[in-house]
Amino acid sequence: MDLSFILQSALQALPVLIQGAGITLAFALAAMVLGLPLGFAVALARLSRFAPLRWLTGLYVSFIRGTPLLVQIFVIYYGLPSFGITLSPVVGGVLALTLNAGAYLSETIRAAILSVGRGQREAAYSLGLTGAQTMRLIVLPQALRVAAPSLGNSLIGLVKDTSLVSVITVVELLRSAQLVIARTFEPFGPYLTAALLYWAISAVLEVVQRGVERRLSRGTV
Q1: Alpha-carbon Rg of the chain, whole angstroms?
Q2: How far apart are CA 60 and CA 188, in angstroms?
Q3: How many structural domains are present in the chain?
Q4: Half-sphere exposure of 219 (CA within 13 A, CB side)
Q5: Which domain holds residue 167?
Q6: Which of 23, 42, 51, 96 allows an S-S link to 106, with CB 3.0 to 4.6 Å?
Q7: Taking the C-alpha atoms of 94, 98, 99 and 105 in order, what is their torsion angle to the nearest 10 degrees?
Q8: Would you give the DSSP letter of residue 129?
C-alpha cells in the first residue's frame, strides 16, 4: 500500500468532495424542512377521530417504514415515468427523502404530542381555549421539548441517507467520491475522505442539536 499515493489522491479529491458535501447537506435540509410539516400533518391525522383518515395515514407510515429507502427512490424515479410522471434526479431524490422523513417524523411528533398529559388539555378546555389554541399554546411547546432529540437525530440520519440518491446520478458526496475513483483508480483515499466529511457534518449538527436542546430546556426557544 502506497500511503503517499493514497494521501495525494485524497487531497486531490478534497475540493470535489467538499462540493459534494454541500449538495448532501442541501438535500438533507430540504428533506427536513419539507418533511416536518408533512410529518406534523400526518401525526395530527393519525390522532384525529376520523377513522378513514387515520387508516390512510397509518397505511402511508407503515409502507414507508416497512420498505427500504432505496426501493422508494427507485419507485419514484424509475417507476413514475410509467404513469407519465418524469422527475429530474434532484426533484426525485428530494421527494423520496421527504416522503421517507415525513413518515418517521410523524411518529416522533405523534409520540411527543401524546406525552403531554390529557389533564392539561382538559384544563385548557375548561378555561375556554379552543382545540387549536390548546394545541398551539399548551401542547406543542411541551411536545417540542420531548421531540427535539429525535428530530435532531432524524436530520443526522438524513445526511447519511442522501448517499442513496447517488444511484439516480445525483452528484452528492458519495457520488463525487465514486467519480474521483473512476478517474484515479484509487478508492481508499476518496472513500475515507468522504467518510470523514460525513462525520464532520454529523458532528456539527450534533453540536447544534445540543444547543437547541439546552435552549428548549431553559424555555428560550
Answers
A1: 21
A2: 40
A3: 1
A4: 1
A5: 3-218
A6: 42
A7: 160
A8: -
**C-alpha span between 184 and 7 (Å, rounded):** 12
pLDDT tens digits for range 86-127: 999 999 999 999 999 999 999 999 999 999 888 887 888 888
CA distance 34 to 101: 9
In the chain, the largest separation of any two C-alpha atoms, in whole Å, equals 74
CB atoms within 10 A of CB 26: 14
Which three cell numbers mark 9?
489522491
Which amino acid, one-letter code, is at 57? Answer: T
pTM for the predicted model, two decimal places: 0.91
CA angle 125, 126, 129 (to 5 degrees): 40
Residue 161's nearest CA partner among 58, 56, 35, 62 is 35
Cell numbers describing residue 206: 450534533
Q: What CATH code is carried by the domain that includes residue 202?
A: 1.10.3720.10
> Which residues of the chain are under the pLDDT cut of 50?
none
Residue 214: count of CB within 10 angstroms of its CB: 11
Type of residue found at 104:
Y
Amino acid residing at 108? T
Where residue 91 falls (left for φ over 0; alpha for ψ -120 to 50; beta otherwise) is alpha
